[in-house]
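Appendix C reproduces, verbatim, an entry submitted by the partner laboratory led by Prof. M.T., so that reviewers can inspect both the input and the predicted structure.
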Amino acid sequence: MNGKPLNAAYESFGLFFHPAYMQMTLAGGGGPHHVQSLPGAEADCSGNVTFRYIAPDAGRVEVAGNGGGFSNERVPLSRDGNGTWSVTIQLPPGFHYVRFFVDGSPAVNAQAPIAYGCHESINFVEVPDPDDDSYLMKDVPHGSVHMEVFRSSHTGQWHNAWIYTPPSYGQDPERRYPVLYLHHGGGENETGWLWQGKINYIADNLFAEEKAEELIIVMPCLYDLNYDEPEEFLAGDYDSLLTRDLIPLIDSRYRTVPDGSSRAVAGLSMGSYHSALVSCAHPGLFAYTGMLSGSFNDRWYGWVHCRDVIEHSDAFRSGTKLFFMSAGLDETRLLPQVEENLEFLKKNGVPAEGFTCPGFHEWTVWRRAIRVFLTRLFR
């Protein structure tokens, strides 16, 4: 499509760094050839998005979003003579989950980028944002992403965490770094902040612009389940997993500054609740707390009453350098709660800052919020 941007961040995902629509075909008189087929989701700089699905035998193909910027109402595709279905619609800039339906049944499109979200393998599309290139891959020094496997001392289950180290990490073996523990949302896992959030590119770009302090970012999975019975919304004992297992592991394997003043915790949606709860449950363990699209209003699934800690714990108030809260302007139910929470924090002497931007409960908002949060850390 005319005006289509060429940036790896728009189409890279966990299974394929380059576009997903590369295929192998046999050519007459020769060996196999790699060719590019039609992409399943293609956006241009004007917000035109063309969805395609190859299904010659299907009787009906539809596409829908997940709500928010891309409605969950199904849009029908039209079939051409070769069995390729397509439709072009307008979508706002940013990240959008995409669901395809073939003859009424959900179907992942192999020709479009795939992520893990909404508790399933799900397609997505990136619509270029003329006002935000902070999450794109740029010609700057890039950090590295490592994988650590560890066992939960509570359930015995194996866990995986992704660890981002900044570009300078391998250059000075004596230098130590502060750490951000960054949490995904409900229905996602430890891959979310990399493939949907593009956190490594956001950090790379901020460091290159000297707008943030270099740090290590740890991205774990929040579910520490025993699988014997149904779990509540905040599934398992993540508090134990983080404080007993993960933090000691990171401090032993990476050049961290192992004290609370050089440690931050943040998350989006469900992960924001985890972040606030673990921060309040262990005053002094984290100097910086970030809640992206969440509030600390009391709920049935909390293991600590945040308001009690904020109001009565001298250790929490003195050890907290910043409590950051954010929301999209279209998160109308959440916005009043965030405003009230910020007032409560400030009333009790806790340094607090709020951030809002246009958008719904989705990655476009969380990318912008985490970028601002990173600029506030360890300065």
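The chain has two domains: 8-127, 144-376. Additional entries are available on request from the coordinating office.
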